[in-house]
Design goal:
The chain is of the alpha/beta class and about 500 residues long. Helices cover about 50% and strands about 15% of the residues.
Length: about 500
């Protein structure tokens, strides 16, 4: 059907199809709005009931921050779906003036042309002044944006420079302050209640509830960039995967249960360095299947059963030599096992080859592995088979040997493919900053909060992988996102990013 054809030109059958399609879109959008509205109501109920739950003061503070951020994110998504913004629940509280002692930087915005269309020169009749709170690491300043008003005395026409678009419309924070809050929360693992106290010592009152709303809004605005990062990562043939447990709050039960943060990243030999995190409420393999979708490549992972369904659908398994070696290292460290020491000698020779080929291209890497590493691997396999016959079933040594023999094809797959690494240490190092921060963030307040954290951490850690300061990156990206065409959003991905002139 020609989309430019008028309705009068359409046949009855075409009109029926058009009506059915439009009704389907309306039903889908309304279902989404209803879902978000229900979620928003649930979040409000949880927020106002939080004080009655059996949490300590610190846990309750983190829960309230999470609920405020989730509620703001839901409101932002509803506004994107609805042509009319939802009516506010109550009158917005009057904003406190920014502290007068902070230094001010003034920005003047005037129309490019003050000559009226009638030919009369306009006169400046006043101005609007708005103040935004900015943050450079360690320093608060105030930006004064002065927008002059120009009027024509003859035809009473009024002209004023337009308000520049911002991530948070009509909000007080600049992109620099938003970047600081996000980096402190998701890179430095600094909860909002701690940030509130730190900023108060600088003479700035930033309630944690306000910052939580900023976090929720930024999560929604940054999501398209994270989606583009994931789409680009899935174009690569080799990926690493790993997962780590994270406590997620169950407000109704007044306790936490175990959720998981999954880490996916491009291979260590790739030029494009990308890591994308996915938060899920369990370790079930369905989450990995849903995330990777139709991707079919080589996945470097451990022996966790959650990946097995992917392998059955055509994903190639590449094993982790470090996991196999670790089994024998534990034996040697615990009781100085002679068998374990011999196994470690074989693994050491394999890793000697890896250090030699680390900086080579994939062709040269494969050639040297075949010449130097394959004979060692074959000798190790023979050694494993012989010693397995000598040790009793169920012993720790038998379990260590069985692990390597049971995964042998996956463990040595890297010998035939120069693009594959020998182990999954690359992915484990990507997940380590998250594991180290768990002691500070205690838990994820909700599934939505966990997914928002995963999205922001994907951008922050990908920036770090590409030797980019995450604060500079997020500040520049959030300044440019409101006017960046959707078709060019890939220009803002960390591995392609180039700072704008003023960054």
């Amino acid at each position: 059907m020609n989309p430019e054809a008028s309705l009068a030109d359409l046949t009855a059958e075409q009109l029926r199809k058009l009506a059915a399609r439009l009704m389907g879109e309306v039903r889908h959008k309304q279902a989404t709005i209803d879902k978000l509205t229900h979620e928003n109501a649930t979040l409000k109920r949880l927020k106002f009931a939080a004080g009655r739950e059996h949490f300590n003061a610190e846990q309750r503070s983190l829960l309230e921050d999470t609920l405020d951020a989730d509620m703001q994110a839901v409101q932002a998504e509803l506004q994107q779906l609805s042509p009319q913004p939802p009516a506010p629940d109550k009158q917005s509280p009057k904003r406190k003036p920014l502290p007068p002692h902070l230094p001010r930087r003034e920005f003047r915005h005037e129309p490019e042309n003050t000559l009226c269309g009638c030919g009369c020169q306009m006169k400046r009749i006043g101005e609007d002044v708005s103040e935004k709170l900015d943050y450079q690491p360690g320093v608060f300043t105030v930006e004064r944006h002065v927008r002059g008003k120009w009027a024509c005395a003859r035809c009473e026409r009024l002209v004023q420079a337009p308000v520049a678009p911002h991530i948070i419309d009509k909000g007080v924070p600049t992109a620099g302050l938003l970047a600081q809050v996000l980096v402190a929360k998701y890179a430095d693992h600094m909860p909002l209640y701690r940030q509130e106290g730190i900023y108060a010592r600088s003479g700035v009152d930033l309630p944690r509830s306000t910052m939580a709303q900023w976090v929720g809004a930024c999560g929604v605005q940054l999501q398209p960039l994270v989606d583009a990062l994931k789409a680009e990562m899935l174009t690569h043939r080799v990926l690493h995967a790993d997962e780590t447990p994270v406590a997620m709050l169950d407000p109704g039960a007044g306790r936490t249960h175990r959720a998981y943060l999954w880490s996916y990243c491009t291979g260590q030999f790739e030029d494009s360095r990308i890591v994308v995190y996915d938060f899920a409420d369990s370790r079930a393999g369905k989450h990995a299947m849903a995330f990777l979708g139709s991707w079919r490549g080589a996945l470097v992972c451990d022996d966790y059963s959650g990946y097995k369904a992917l392998l059955a659908q055509g994903v190639t398994e590449a094993g982790c030599l470090a996991h196999a070696r670790r089994k024998f290292y534990d034996l040697w460290a615990n009781n100085r096992s002679q068998i374990a020491e011999e196994a470690l000698g074989y693994f050491g020779k394999l890793y000697d080859v890896e250090r030699e080929v680390q900086s080579l291209d994939s062709v040269a890497r494969q050639r040297i592995r075949q010449q130097s590493a394959r004979p060692v691997a074959e000798a190790l396999h023979t050694w494993l088979v012989l010693h397995r016959q000598k040790v009793p079933d169920g012993s720790a040594t038998a379990k260590a040997i069985d692990y390597s023999l049971g995964r042998w094809l996956a463990l040595v797959r890297y010998l035939d493919d120069g693009a594959l690494p020998a182990d999954n240490n690359w992915a484990e190092n990507r997940i380590r900053p998250i594991a180290l921060g768990r002691a500070n963030w205690l838990f994820a307040g909700s599934l939505r909060a966990g997914k928002r954290a995963a999205a922001v951490m994907s951008l922050i850690q990908s920036a770090k992988l590409n030797d980019i300061d995450p604060w500079h990156y997020l500040r520049d990206v959030m300044e440019r996102l409101p006017t960046q065409p959707a078709v060019r959003i890939a220009e803002l991905l960390p591995h392609r990013w180039g700072p704008s002139v003023h960054s």
